[in-house]
Design brief:
Helices cover about 45% and strands about 10% of the residues. With about 280 residues, the chain is α/β, with parallel strands linked by helices. Helix 9 packs parallel to helix 10. The longest helix has 24 residues. It binds pterin-6-yl-methyl-monophosphate (PMM). Pterin-6-yl-methyl-monophosphate (PMM) binds next to strand 1 and strand 5.
């Protein structure tokens, strides 16, 4: 999934794609590089961000969603508002990506059921302004899984088919750097819950801090190699999707992860049981 933020203030690409023509051209570039889905967002969720008015969010996103969908690309709408989701689906969006997992707008689950598209339900504990104050867990993996399953329950109760739901651990949303690493390390536990899983590590702060002295960080635009490494790891685990800004480096990394996976499987197939009588490899 390639990220297209039509915002003036997103943390890594804010202001770059606010002009609809530039946004559509960038979507086409992301698709040409290998993105299967273009995720269009009109509201920044960086820590500390204020909310935008709904009219502004609609104005930023709907024409872009419509143009990209008309060009034949698969679009997801990154919104916490049911009205934005509904209008985006009306003009061609095929996915709703709600970072609040239905918590920000009580009508989201019902709307998702009515419009009948796939929906990404992300783990979230509150709006960006003060979300980092909610980053308190005694068992981050267990709590994220149980809070997500409550959210999924609400969508299913509203009439969304379970197979339409994709879950996301919400890295960086009410999570410390350490929480993000723990969630990545234990991701198979979330995957075992049975829903498709998508993960967004792209350019996030915890990647910028790796290998740097305490309190220092690589700037967001210098985090694409780190992002690609996580994409390779996530590909190896078998997640359904990764959400990234730089599609080219992630596709490269996933191709390598995939080639390695195939080579390792083939190598395992070559191994023969060792025979006791000769002590040799019977497959020689
Ligand atoms: N992260 C951001 C925005 N939307 N959606 C999903 N499903 N998962 C994420 O991790 C996620 C998201 C924040 O990143 P951005 O400001 O660069 O878009």
């Amino acid at each position: 999934m390639g990220v297209l933020n039509v915002t003036p203030d997103s943390f890594s690409d804010g202001g770059l794609f606010i002009d609809p023509d530039v946004a559509v051209a960038h979507a086409q570039e992301l698709a040409a590089e290998g993105a299967d889905i273009i995720d269009v967002g009109g509201e920044s969720t960086r820590p500390g961000a204020d909310r935008v008015e709904i009219e502004q969010e609609l104005q930023r996103t709907i024409p872009v969603v419509e143009a990209i969908a008309r060009a034949g690309l698969t679009v997801s709408i990154d919104t916490m508002r049911s009205e934005v989701a509904r209008r985006a689906v009306e003009v061609g969006a095929a996915y709703i990506n709600d970072v609040s997992g239905g918590l920000a707008d009580p009508r989201m689950a019902r709307t998702a059921a009515e419009v009948g598209v796939d929906v990404i339900v992300m783990h979230w504990r509150g709006h960006s302004r003060d979300m980092q104050q909610r980053a308190t867990y005694s068992d981050v993996t267990g709590e994220v899984i149980s809070e997500l399953s409550e959210r999924v329950g609400e969508f299913v109760a509203a009439g969304v088919a379970p197979e339409r739901i994709i879950v996301d651990p919400g890295l960086g949303f009410a999570k410390s750097f350490e929480h993000n690493w723990q969630l990545l390390a234990t991701l198979p536990e979330l995957m075992a819950q049975g829903h498709r899983v998508i993960v967004g590590t792209s350019r996030k702060g915890f990647l910028g801090a790796v290998g740097r002295p305490e309190g220092q960080s690589r700037p967001p635009l210098e985090r694409d190699v780190a992002t690609a490494v996580t994409s390779a790891y996530l590909c190896d685990l078998g997640v359904w999707g990764v959400r990234v800004h730089d599609v080219r480096s992630t596709i490269d990394a996933m191709d390598v992860a995939n080639a390695l996976w195939l080579a390792r499987r083939a190598a395992r197939g070559r191994t023969r049981p060792v025979r006791r009588d000769t002590g040799g490899d019977t497959g020689a």
